[in-house]
């Protein structure tokens, strides 16, 4: 398991910093996010009050495609027969196939086989490239949930952002002016080497 390249908690109170550093560390380990989060900067100021977590995530490897877990073969009747090697992405794959080919043209005779009735001229190999899941989306949801746990109790006014491996999460008891939040977030992102 890869460790975070950069992890720092800033708080005006030394004891508070140590406690939040331990909480953040424990939550990231519990959610198995240490392998995903590359750099993390947490800033807490109870006087404002504000909690900011900003950082970067490691690349998740891109979308999962049908070819990543199933073998696609054409039969003599013009159908594509998929042999499923891993059922993890079966449900999202079926949804993608139904959307593209219609529910009436997709059969599942058993849990390890799917048959797609193709129209004349359809290439069965095109099925291999259909994206069925993006693991990065689930990881981002897990990260935001973890940050909600780490943030101080009662900080219910939240703002979050994620794009291209960069994220931030801001929480407060109060509504904060947009320009104040932007300036504070920019400062925390700069500490992890990112500018938006």
From TrEMBL:
It holds the Pfam family DUF2113. This is Methanogenesis marker 17 protein. It comes from Methanofollis fontis. The lineage of its organism: Archaea, Methanobacteriati, Methanobacteriota, Stenosarchaea group, Methanomicrobia.
